[in-house]
Amino acid sequence: MAMVARIPRPRLFIIKDPSPNAFATGTSPKNGAVAVTTGLLDTLNNEEVEGVIAHEVAHIQNYDIRLSTIAVALVSAVAILTDIGMRMMIFNRGGGNNKQHPLMLIVALVLIILAPVIATMIQLAISRNREYLADASAAELTRNPHALASALRKITGIERPVQEASGTSASLYFADPLKKKVAGLFSSHPPPKNRIERLQNM
User: Smaller CB count within 10 Å for the chain: N or C?
Assistant: First the structure.
């Protein structure tokens, strides 16, 4: 897959975990790495494994991990600015000429509450769109979108979460490792049904 994608071969890792999943990491193709669980190797056939590996290689090829890192940094910056704004609002509530208009305080409070939420939603929307792009790139690399759709169907059909996965690393995985039932604005992955439909229509 790395040869087809014209990138250096990423380092390969196998994680001992019965939940079928995989992820890629590395800020550039030169330091990329792909990890798959033992559950993935036990559950999928060769063509399906190839599709998942192609998906992860596509993330490396498209610099998705670097983009995700930048998005996380921006969300953190918004959180810091929000914190600074909140402290300024608290310390500027003195009497006399420094007294603020109540409407301005309400607007500031709304912005302080909404800014981190909106930033997080944007970060997760980027993550969902990059999953669609990686699916399309994987289909192009393998010329077999139906194998990837089949892999996605099998992986999402198993309700066992990845043991060591956390909310902060969930966006790195091929499919939601936490096995959350509801996919929406605060989900790191698009609904599996939508991904499968897109792959089948290729």
Answer: C
Q: Which of 148, 143, 197, 136 is nearest to 22 (CA)?
A: 148
pTM of the model: 0.78
User: Strand (E) positions, 27-147?
Assistant: 33-37
Burial class (CB within 10 angstroms; exposed 0-12, middle 13-18, buried 19+) of 122: middle
Q: What residues are annotated to the active site?
A: 56
Instruction: Tell which phi-psi region holds residue 26, choosing left (phi > 0), alpha (psi between -120 and 50) or beta.
Output: left
55: left (phi over 0), alpha (psi -120 to 50) or beta: alpha
Average pLDDT over residues 144-161: 93
φ, ψ (nearest 5 deg) of residue 40? -65, -45
Tens-place pLDDT, residues 154-182? 999 998 889 887 777 777 889 888 877 66
pLDDT digits (tens, 9 = 90+) for 31-77: 999 999 999 999 999 999 999 999 999 999 998 888 777 777 777 77
22: part of which helix (H) or strand (E)?
strand 22-25
